[in-house]
Amino acid sequence: MTSVPAAADPIVEVRDLVHTFGKDIRALDGVSLAFGAGMVYGLLGPNGAGKTTLIRVLATLLRPDSGSAHVAGVDVLRHPTRARTRIGLAGQFAAVDDYLTGRENVRMIGRLYGLSATESRRRADDILEGIGLSDAASRPVRTYSGGMRRRLDLAASLVGRPQVLFLDEPTTGIDPRNRADLWALIRQLVDDGTTVLLTTQYLEEADQLAERIGVIDHGRIISEGTSDELKDRLGGAMLELSVEPSHRDAAHRVLVDALGDEPVLDLDTDRYRVTARDGTRTLLTAVRALDAAGIEPDDVRLIKPTLDDVFLQLTDTDLQPEVST
Ligand SMILES: Nc1ncnc2c1ncn2[C@@H]1O[C@H](COP(=O)(O)OP(=O)(O)O)[C@@H](O)[C@H]1O
Ligand SMILES: [Mg+2]
After folding, report:
1. Prediction pTM value
2. Spatial separation of the C-alpha atoms in residues 115 and 123, rounded to whole Å
3. In angstroms, rounded to a whole number, what is the distance separating the alpha carbons of residues 224 and 201?
4. Are the C-beta atoms of residues 51 and 208 closer than 8 Å to each other?
5. Would the CB of 45 count as within 6 Å of ligand 1?
6. 101: which residues sit within 8 A by CB, 6+ positions away?
7. Domains contained in the chain, CATH given
8. Residue minimizing CA distance to atom 24 of ligand 1
9. pLDDT (tens digit, 9 = 90+) per residue, 151-207?
10. Which atom belonging to ligand 1 lies closest to the Cα atom of 46?
11. Would you call 42 helix, strand, or coil by DSSP?
12. Closest to 13 measured CA to CA, from 62, 54, 47
């Protein structure tokens, strides 16, 4: 897929990235995507889809076979050193030193970034505070829980004040409560002006957190848009309503007239179902027509497909909400 989705002034822009491992593993098979600053962009895909490979290219850790990538106005392939000053990376496997305390870990990164001892101390304390690790800051990391390690890893990625933060499956394998904490943290970072590219295999995570979502599978972006756009693209929204039994025939005729579609009566639930091509507009049309005919439905609902449905249709892969790797 070569078309790049609209983004007025993209902060991340990737074109036709191809990367092959060995002879025949096309980890990236022509990936293009673009998005603007100040949002969470979710890259959603199953294991082996190419998410980490893409992140590694964007984070200057891997040179692709072909294609281009710009982050925060810098050509990542031409100017990796400059690109590195604008990005942060945190991942599924927290890269922190177990024998140092949380504070020491973050200070050390500060020194690596060339901050003075005083500056790195101040910066570490600020970040640890912001990330909710102040209380645990003096403990060695080996005593941290999985969720705390992820947060410390995130803290480390913030030392360089990145414009764009890459989070590679930041919540994979951690429990739901810690996941919710991390989501809140990520939202806070975005509110404070950071742009986040986050990979995930959790539909709910993409749905909750990401303003735009690229669905990736076998090294290709197979669909792209907001969560609602992805769902709408399935065209599967249904209008479901129930009316009193004595009104059924009349309601049926009214719905056919108004929507030009044959509603289906589910005898088990006593509900009509009809395709809602225009979503809420279809719902309004139906309700107005019924109202004009003097029929008041007992219950009206618009049933939208879930991201799960989108995924199933696109990939034949049933993503499990709680799979950990
Ligand atoms: N260093 C590597 N050497 C060989 N194959 C790799 C390497 N890294 C990733 N792959 C392969 O590339 C594909 C994409 O992997 P990856 O980007 O890690 O996917 P994801 O992060 O979405 O799970 C997979 O088939 C994986 O096995
Ligand atoms: Mg990965």
Report:
1. 0.78
2. 9
3. 15
4. no
5. yes
6. 137, 138, 139, 140, 141
7. 12-224 (3.40.50.300), 237-303 (3.30.70.100)
8. 48
9. 899 889 999 889 999 999 988 888 888 888 889 989 999 998 999 999 998 888 998
10. 22
11. strand
12. 54
